[in-house]
Amino acid sequence: MSKKKSYDNLTTQLIDLAAEKKVSIAWDRLEEQSPQCGFGTMGVCCRICAMGPCQVDPYGNGPQKGVCGADANTIAARNFVRMVAAGGASHSDHGRSVAETFIEVAKGKAPGYSIQDEQKLLALAMDFDVEIGDRSINEIALEVGEKALAQWGEQHGPLVMTRRAPLKRQQLWDELGITPRGVDREVVEIMHRTHMGVDQEYKHLIAQGSRAALADGWGGSMLATELQDIMFGTPVPAVGSVNLGLLEKDDVNIIVHGHEPLLSEMIVAVSMTDEMKEYAKSKGARGINLAGICCTANEVLMRHQIPMAGNFLQQEVAILTGLVEAMVVDVQCIMQSLPEVAAGYHTEIITTSKIAKMPGAKHIEFHEDQALDSAKEIVKAACDNFQNRKAENLHLVEGSRDMVVGFSHETINYLLGGSYRASYRPLNDNIINGKIRGIGAVVGCNNPKSTHDEYHIALVKELIKNNVIVLTTGCAAGSLAKEGLLDPISGGAMAGETLREVCETVGIPPVLHMGACVDNSRILMAATAVVKEGGLGDDLSEIPAAGAAPEWMSEKAIAIGQYCVASGVYVVFGTTWPTHGAPELTDYLFDGIDKEVGGKWAFEPDPIKGAQLMIAHIDEKRRALGIDKKKERVLMDMAMRREIEGGA
Ligand code: NFS
Ligand code: SF4
Q1: Which one of 264, 332, 479 would you pick to mutate in the ligand 1 pocket, going by the greatest count of ligand atoms within 8 A of its CB?
Q2: Whether the CB of 556 sits within 6 Å of ligand 1
Q3: Per-residue pLDDT at 647
């Protein structure tokens, strides 16, 4: 590979160090894997039954059917909706753990956890028709928790949370027969329908993909966010910081990596106790420095301002600083290579989840009913490891960036609404008057197939330059933060004139950090609030907005993309696209599915072109709403403007 591996300087330094030390990291393994199988890349390899594996030749020279007769569209659509199933299952199973713990908290059986946001609990109680009256908070929480948990297995639907969507959207889902039932059922149905010889009509398969994805976005994921906010607090704007320069030479450095805040919240709490601080000192350290990677980083960053060490592709190189006493992992996006990378270092890789182990890692299982004890054991193990640091392994990198984090859908409401009345009115007005051209949601992973961080940054710079306000989550947020885009001053300077003006007035950056990937449900809620506020159409598909996952790699990204598309959103993916071997299916996903659900997919490997696709879509929506005309004011020269303003 000749292209740059990472846009980030610190990461680049450590990639070079890895090469020097002959430590194999993701980019090296990608090279070893290259060229990757074209059938797999294009989605037309089927290994669903033992008559296969079968491949369909996308260029028409080889076989066009699998042994069973399945064609390219069926094979690629089955593969695609299986990605939706796995991605939705991951988010939603995380949500299920949260719901289970929530119930234990309500019963008073999970010491360490508590109900922090009572207002949000009461709002959720109303969604679930739970009587409030003069019942105690714990009583209400217990009933909410049990009703929420039952949503995973809801057999008939509709899921309670889908009733938050704009009415028109709910009716459309009903008409199309994709109103989701519980995610457990939808995922099982995908596995059934994609078994050999069942559903073999690609549009019909994709419809089930939509239904399952909606069960995640408007079910499992949304409930994960809601219940986490109730237990750990709804994020409010705060200053945080990002990048590997935040690892401290004199402290015990613990990196929390993965996804579920159930564990990381407890590690945060425990590492702040005097007992643990003293323990760290007794091992020769100054104190304890906690930092995050991947979505766990977003969770603890937005609620506790714990620094973000990095995003997905920085997990291996973080170890190469020689400063990490323990990397504590739970589920999802954790590379199996970590123990191997750590082999020449003192870093301990600690797995903690009941469902996830790795060879070469130390397993300290985390139990929610003894959460503080589990967390203490983990933090102590990290402190014990401080004295094993090897001086010859130290490779300090310097640098970090500040950012503002924690824009939940509620805080956007409050911030933009000002002190009189929380409301989305000012946001809608600024969209209608054209100061804000539209909304872009930029989310998702890193992928070594494209220069780390670069696509996120280039795409978002182009969006904000064109006055599109950006909402971000997940590893994308990490990329953007490293470039200073989440900083009101440096980010604001990169925004177009009118967007900058709005941001300066409110005191926000042009890119709003909304949390982890599971919190993409916050973006759905924010978009819904825009619709309900009025003036921008009456469905999600009518507002001037578009989404993107430029550097995606995970099946979760496909699930998110599909629930956005099925919610009426235009979604652009970069790097690679998994159905190219099936042209008819691909045409349908890119141009055809929108006639049904209002949203559609696009693939664009160039960031500037990707941004332009999003902007063109936003402009088209503005035209349809009849709010495109006012923009012409921009074309007036200063003299005309002075005349008008003077005459007013
Ligand atoms: Ni999202 Fe979070 Fe990152 Fe991608 Fe992985 S951490 S759930 S999947 S890599 S953004
Ligand atoms: Fe081949 Fe059909 Fe079996 Fe797939 S399901 S492996 S296409 S025979």
Answers
A1: 332
A2: yes
A3: 42
45 lines ligand 2 (CB under 6 A): no
Q: Which helix (H) or strand (E) holds 415?
A: helix 409-417
Cα distance between residue 564 and residue 612, in whole Å:
19
Radius of gyration of the chain (CA): 24
Within 180-251, strands assigned E span 238-242
* Structure confidence at residue 648 (pLDDT): 37
3 state SS of 256: strand
Atom 6 (ligand 2) nearest CA:
52
Residue nearest to atom 7 of ligand 2 (CA): 66
The separation between CA 393 and the C-alpha centre of its own chain, rounded to angstroms, equals 33
pLDDT for position 1: 44
553/549 Cα distance (integer angstroms): 9
Structure tokens at 478: 């990490």
Q: Which two tokens stand for residue 328?
A: 């504590």
Sequence-distant (6+) residues with CB within 8 A of 366 are: 262, 263, 266, 330, 352, 353, 354, 374, 375, 378
Per-residue H/E/C for 439-496: EEEECCCCCCCCCECHHHHHHHHHHHHCCEEEEECHHHHHHHHHCCCCCHHHHHHCCC
Tokens 């402009």 belong to 619
Q: Write out residues in the chain with pLDDT < 70, as ranges.
A: 1-2, 417-421, 630-648
Q: Name the residue with the closest Cα to ligand 1, atom 9.
A: 445
Contact (CB, 8 A) for 520 and 562: no
Kindly state the helix (H) or strand (E) to which residue 573 belongs, with its residue range: strand 570-573
Q: Which two tokens stand for residue 436?
A: 């804000």
* pLDDT for res 411: 87
Residue 259 Cα: closest atom of ligand 1: 2
- Using one digit for the tens of pLDDT, what is the confidence trace for 433-465? 999 999 999 999 999 999 999 999 999 999 999
Atom of ligand 1 nearest to the CA of 333: 5
Q: For position 412, what pLDDT does the model report?
A: 86
Question: What one-letter code names the amino acid at 299?
Answer: E
Is the CB–ligand 2 distance for residue 47 below 6 Å?
yes
Q: Which domains does the chain have, with CATH numbers?
A: 9-55 (no CATH), 72-232 (1.20.1270.30), 244-393 (3.40.50.2030), 403-625 (3.40.50.2030)
Mutate to test the pocket of ligand 1, among 90, 264, 295 (most ligand atoms within 8 A of CB): 295
What's the CA-to-centroid distance between 291 and ligand 1, angstroms?
Answer: 17
